[in-house]
Design the sequence.
């Protein structure tokens, strides 16, 4: 690299790649709203994984009505748990791609919450909790502060 490149601020390709990967982190600390959205999304992922593991274990060791259904449900929930966990990690790292999966998860959670609430009983409490978390994360992710932190400009 010549001294002229240093004076103009043009760095090596490795330096350029590192600064491009850093993204919005260089603009300051992560907003609390984005951190809260990431934590809530992570909690959803952990809850899905825990319930999936429970169903899988009960299908293998317990005496469910249908062992195959319990095992398949458990495996499905374990696979579905990956999406909110990956989205939560992306939000924590301020990756702009993470907003899409996080929004999709929350939009899908609202009808699930409604179905759980409609069932009544103790399951309705789970539906209410899910609805509150989903709506909170939706509000946090579409907030202009979070959008700016993810370096997403309005169109």
Sequence:
């Amino acid at each position: 690299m010549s001294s002229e490149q240093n004076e103009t601020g043009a760095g090596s390709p490795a330096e350029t790649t590192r600064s491009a990967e850093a993204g919005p982190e260089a603009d300051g600390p992560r907003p609390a709203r984005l951190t809260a959205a990431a934590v809530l999304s992570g909690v959803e992922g952990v809850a899905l994984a825990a319930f999936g593991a429970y169903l899988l274990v009960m299908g293998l060791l317990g005496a469910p009505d249908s062992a195959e259904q319990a095992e398949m449900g458990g495996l499905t929930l374990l696979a579905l748990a990956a999406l909110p966990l990956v989205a939560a990690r992306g939000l924590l790292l301020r990756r702009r791609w993470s907003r899409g999966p996080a929004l999709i998860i929350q939009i899908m959670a609202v009808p699930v919450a409604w179905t759980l609430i409609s069932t009544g009983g103790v399951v309705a409490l789970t539906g209410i909790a899910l609805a509150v978390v989903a709506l909170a994360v939706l509000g946090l992710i579409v907030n202009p502060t979070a959008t700016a932190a993810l370096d997403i400009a309005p169109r």
About this structure: Residues 1-24 have pLDDT under 50 and may be disordered. Residues 86 and 131 are 21 Å apart (CA to CA). The radius of gyration is 21 Å.
